[in-house]
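pasting for the record
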Amino acid sequence: MVDILHRIGATASPEDVYAALTTIEGLSSWWTRDTDGDANVGGVIRFRFEPGGFDMKVLEAQPAERVRWEVVDGPEEWIGTRIRFELKQEDGFTIVLFRHEGWKEPVEFMYHCSTKWATFLMSLKKLVETGKGEPAPDDVRISNWH
């Protein structure tokens, strides 16, 4: 198993970052505008993009600390993988430790997803720092996979 790992720091409170990760309004402001569903623990959030989308079951939501999802529908490589956001405060920043874990192997699609996660995490940073993120379809295009 292999994981995608990223770390960003945002000059925003852990509570603001947590809200961006746990509300439909917040998620649609940095990842994809086409977001709906139930963002509560046990609920399923649907994220849609031009070429398809993902359904995430919310496994855990610890205020200002941690959010975990499991991919229950989407591309075959994603199903059963888990997404984790760990939050901590450090020197005036909220640090987000991101993990997309459980990939069976590092296929080319994983390389693409790693880059896209980085761009979307920068969108999250921009959202909590300025009030405006860059969710899909306004995100950076890196290939024909979007």
